[in-house]
Write a structure and sequence with these properties.
The complex is a heterotrimer of chains A (about 290), B (about 160) and C (about 110). Chain A is mainly α. Chain A folds into 2 domains: about 30-75 and about 185-290, Orthogonal Bundle (Cytochrome Bc1 Complex, Chain D, domain 2), CATH 1.10.760; about 80-165, Cytochrome Bc1 Complex, Chain D, domain 2, CATH 1.10.760.10. Chain A is built from 11 helices and 5 strands, in the order H-H-H-H-E-E-H-H-H-H-H-E-E-H-H-E. The two termini of chain A are about 25 Å apart. Chain B has 2 domains: about 1-35, no CATH class; about 40-145, Sandwich (Immunoglobulin-like). Chain B has helices at about 1-10, 15-20, 25-35, 40, 45-55, and strands spanning about 60, 65-70, 80-85, 90-95, 105-110, 115-120, 125-135, 140-145. Chain B is an alpha+beta fold and about 160 residues long. Chain B is globular, with a radius of gyration of 19 Å. Chain C has a single domain, classed as Sandwich (Immunoglobulin-like), CATH 2.60.40.10. Classes of the chains: A mainly alpha (about 290), B alpha+beta (about 160), C mainly beta (about 110). The interface of B and C includes residues 26 and 78 of B. Strand 5 of chain B pairs antiparallel with strand 4 (about 55-60) of chain C.
Amino acid sequence: MTAATKRLWIVCAALAIAAGAAAAHAAPTDDLKQFREFFKNKFPTVKFDDYADGLYALPGMDDYRAQWEALNEFPPYELGLAEGKKEWQTPFKNGKTYAGCFKNGGKNTAQHYPYWSDAGNEVRTVEMDLIDCLKKNGEERAFTTADLDKDAKARVQLANLTAAFYQLSQGQRVSIDLSKPGALQAYEEGKKFWWQRRGQLNFACANCHMDLAGRNLGGNQPLSAALGHPIAWPAFRTVWGQLETIHQRYATCNSQVRAKPAKHGSKIYNHLQLYETYLSTGLPLTAPTVRN
Amino acid sequence: MIDTQRRTLLKGVLGAVVIAVTGGIGFLKRALAAEWPKDAFAAKTVEDALKGLYGTAQTSASGSIKIKAPLQAENGAVVPISVTTTLPSVQSMAILVDKNPTPLIAQVNLIGSDSFFSARIKMGATSDVYCVVKSGGKLYSAKQNVKVTVGGCGG
Amino acid sequence: MARQTRIRTKVQDGITEILVLVSHPMETGQRIDPATKEKIPAHWIQKITFSVNGKEVAVADMGVGVSKDPLLGVKVKGAKPGDKVRVTWSDNNGESGEAETTISATPA
């Protein structure tokens, strides 16, 4: 076991995680209230809207924040985003465009994603709707056929396009509809995943991104707060050098605690995304962003 | 045969004639690339890099050179740096990273621009970042330490 | 396909900052390709030239120490909205690129 891993075990053992205390079927509105209170108490100086800046809003991040602001003067994701915008704007062979598949031409709609579809009896993400749009119009792309867990090039193409879509709703505040029974059930599954310990390192999402938020866990990289997570995605991580989807982040995160990741586009990641996004209700969409 | 003739012409520094013989822009591009200070960029020490650029590694420390760099790089692959100076008659500004395998990162020749230069640079390890300024024919320098660590969960 | 070369300009207190972002791998020549186990050959931008209204204002020589998708910035006094900014670059493989923009009236 490396020194870093040993440190992780010690920290983990020393924590009193309130995981068990999370009521199994509290109403989402109660979860939301508890979640916001948790962070308000943990970081009393951080304002609600500041969480849209991710890690850089947390105390003690001045040095990293300055670097982030320097990168934001001309964000490296502009290259991938330009490709995504080009794809979004290019008409299909039948003359139609992506915009035609979406309410309001795709503008100011991303804040309602993911959403429960009664028709499809499933949670749907932006990525799914983009792929569906292509299929409805008889079009194929690398990312409509590739295994997105293995084909990074195809997945990044999808991330670039998804980023272009989210940018059309930049500034819109997250608002997720959980009124349908199917939505609620999916939410509960996502919630269960969030609080469940996994992997060799035996961490739950909640451990790192709630209790340990703002703290270094070995190395030089502090952990982000979960409040504000999904509004930044697709995001550009410097370590990847490209825009990536939120499911890719879930997969790599799960791998980092030595748990077998779920597949890109899997139901469980859709449900986790639904749960996480609901918990960021009210925060403005910032995607695409630079994240580390 | 033809190569010998080319070499003779090149020795004669007859720029226009050489271009006509070898067929234009391709050669011109290669000629420009030849101006790129190869030895300075291949140098394994700051001293050798400076000798490659300026013929000497002698610089005077100057408080008039400001380096904007992080205390600790969030990611050593992309470290945003900017350098400015109030020294007069600035001809060029160079950035070097002491502990990089080849310390010279970049040099900008200021023809009509301000005494400012920014770049995103790679740093392999904790190191001093140098800025060397050529002002009025003399060399001045400043340095700042930037910590680089690797690993960790993060995000 | 041409590599993306993008320019941003920002005017503040009579000084124009010119930032250029190029889609380029900036390979050091030390990285090992996980598939082939071979070193990926060095491939980097060597020179970037900045011009305003057809006049060169700065020429940067670069090495592999500049980050992937390189960003370089210079500042120019006296440039005004409507002025044309041109950036050209060339790399060690003989590839080159360029971009042009007009300094806008509204500060960035």
